[in-house]
Design brief:
The structure holds two protein chains of two kinds. Chain A is built from twelve helices and five strands. Chain A is mainly alpha-helical. Chain A has one domain. Chain A has a two-stranded antiparallel sheet with strand order 1-2. In chain A, strand 3 and strand 4 form a beta hairpin. Chain A starts with 5 loop residues before the first strand and ends with a strand. Chain B folds into two domains: 185 residues, no CATH class; 43 residues. Chain B is built from six helices and 13 strands. In chain B, helix 5 packs across helix 6. The N and C termini of chain B lie far apart (105 Å). The chains are: A mainly alpha, B alpha+beta. The interface between A and B is large, with 58 and 62 residues.
């Protein structure tokens, strides 16, 4: 069936089917609302597939994530799932890390083979995070009884746990129900910021596992807090990309945003109905699927042996 | 010396006489002469009409201005992974090249029309220059493949029809599908008249492509006031997200 609703995108220099873009936004927004990821690692390749230049796809996606994460953050805030204190500390670290990451990528580009390292980082990060989350969630789903009734005092604390406890500036994060050193979210936020800048993504899919496994926050608070942090990261990226590179197509972003904001609302409600381990295993599967796709692209001979400058 | 001048003058007159009819035998009009890209633009059809000698073939080309394109070569790293490697620049490649003919160009070329290669996409191999430090073999072939995948380079046959013939002339009508992936700028519609495998006449008509309405407004803002455009895009996205969030909130509360 041929749907005649086409709209010309002046910055992308191409016309798109409005319903297709709305649907695409809705599907990715749904995942964003459920898992607290921005969805950039899914949306950008899909837009490129539909004929949008890579640089415009990535920048316009950041613009739509601003809207989608606002909608998602609001939905999670209403449900009491946003830890603002933790979010602000992670954000501060993320800004420092992002700035450092941009410098790292500049050095890598001067050394050559930067794209190789970027792609390798992508596959390794996705593989490690997705694999670990998948196995861990599977184990916790198989042993619900043991998980729900742990023997108090018998569980030996890990080295990481002991180090976390002796760090200075311990503070209470009421919303997450954890007590941690101020340094932990700052340092971890910086590390994620560096990786996100190198990989050219918002970093949601790295931040979520960091919050779950290293900051030990409950999964539902993780999702809301992650969206809150992504909102600020993408505001910065949108303004910078529009100002410096003229790559933000607002019409495309608005279409995606309408779809994704609605999708994010539905996703937030759907996510609330799922258990934490169910959420984790679904996100792990998604991350692993993307990893397999990227690995295939790295190993299979491309149809054309040329690429536009700017896309990964 | 006078004899030499006389021979040269006679040769010039002969050349002028032999080519003069060919220059006058073809004519072409193009509609529309300006393609306006509005908010709902999704490609259009450009019509070229005119006449050519009855014993000739018309080939119509829609050509964009030439520009330098900076790209990356893709190659294997460590014998395993395909990566973007060295930079490569294509110089003198038209942004668009759509070749239309009434008959299959392969057939025309086989029937003694080797010189027609210059009109075809493969003819760009001669005119496009490549600057690279890498070792990509057949770089222009790869470039042509990329452009064809994007729908910007295309050879079509059967979209030119001959409508009537009189006084050794026949009229033609070419329907050229213009892609939706089109940038504003100057383009050229070129009619090449081919007889016995040789180009005997060429007629060119300019076509302008420009943005109108909302796309023009948006492009003006994005390129002319980019910081303001970025801030506006962010604020509107924030408000839209908040608005949708509030709509869902009010629905949820009832």
């Amino acid at each position: 069936m041929n749907i005649p609703l086409h709209l010309y995108l002046p910055i992308a220099g191409n016309s798109v089917n409005m319903l297709l873009i709305l649907g695409l936004g809705g599907a990715v927004g749904l995942l964003s609302g459920i898992f607290g990821v921005g969805g950039g690692f899914l949306m950008t390749p899909l837009l490129i597939m539909f004929g949008i230049p890579p640089t415009v796809a990535a920048a316009s996606d950041s613009n739509q994530i601003v809207g989608a994460s606002t909608s998602g953050t609001l939905a999670h805030f209403r449900l009491g799932n946003v830890d603002f204190k933790m979010g602000m500390l992670l954000l501060a670290g993320g800004i420092v890390g992002g700035t450092a990451g941009v410098q790292v990528i500049k050095v890598l580009r001067q050394l050559g083979n930067a794209d190789f390292l970027i792609n390798l980082t992508y596959v390794l990060m996705l593989g490690i995070i997705g694999g670990y989350m998948f196995v861990e969630s599977l184990q916790s789903m198989r042993k619900p009884a043991q998980r729900s009734a742990p023997a108090p005092g018998l569980k030996k604390e890990s080295l990481y746990g002991r180090i976390a406890k002796i760090l200075p500036w311990q503070m209470e994060f009421e919303r997450s129900g954890v007590r941690l050193s101020l340094l932990m979210p700052l340092v971890l936020g910086t590390l994620v910021g560096i990786l996100a800048a190198i990989m050219g993504v918002g970093g949601g899919f790295i931040m979520v596992p960091v919050m779950v496994y290293l900051l030990r926050m409950p999964m539902h608070v993780v999702v809301g807090t992650s969206l809150f942090q992504i909102l600020f990261t993408c505001i910065n990226v949108t303004i910078m990309q529009a100002w410096r590179n003229h790559t933000v197509d607002f019409v495309l972003a608005l279409l995606l945003l309408i779809g994704s904001s609605i999708g994010a609302q539905v996703g937030a409600k759907l996510g609330k109905k799922l258990r934490g381990d169910q959420l984790k295993i679904l996100l792990a599967s998604l991350v692993l699927v993307v990893m397999v796709k990227m690995l295939y692209e790295l190993l299979a001979r491309p149809e054309v042996l040329l690429a536009y400058v700017g896309g990964h | 010396m006078k004899i030499v001048y006389s021979i040269l003058f006679a040769a010039f007159c002969l050349f002028a006489v032999s080519t003069a009819p060919a220059q006058g035998v073809a004519r072409m009009a193009v509609e529309p002469q300006t393609i306006s890209i509005g908010a709902l633009y999704n490609g259009t059809t450009l019509t070229a009409t005119g006449s050519v000698p009855a014993d000739s073939e018309a080939i119509v080309r829609f050509i964009g201005t030439s520009c330098d394109l900076h790209m990356k070569e893709r190659g294997k790293v460590g014998g395993i992974m395909w990566m973007n490697l060295d930079s490569i620049t294509f110089k003198g490649a038209p942004s668009v090249c759509l070749v239309s003919s009434a008959v299959d160009l392969n057939r025309l070329e086989e029937n003694g029309g080797a010189s027609l290669k210059v009109l075809r996409l493969s003819g760009l191999k001669r005119s496009v220059q490549v600057e690279t430090n890498g070792g990509l073999q057949n770089a222009v072939d790869e470039f042509l493949k990329l452009k064809q995948n994007e729908g910007l380079y295309r050879e079509m046959f059967g979209n030119i029809s001959y409508e009537s013939a009189s006084e050794a002339q026949k009229t033609f009508r070419a329907e050229v599908p213009i892609p939706s992936r089109l940038s504003p700028g100057s383009y050229m519609v070129e009619l090449d008249v081919v007889r016995n495998g040789k180009i005997i006449s060429t007629v060119e008509r300019p076509v302008t492509v420009n943005l109108v309405g909302f796309p023009a407004l948006l492009a003006g803002l994005a390129f002319g006031h980019s910081a303001l455009y970025g801030i506006l895009a962010t604020v509107i996205a924030l408000l839209a997200g908040l608005g949708i969030g509030l709509v869902f909130q009010s629905r949820g509360s009832h």
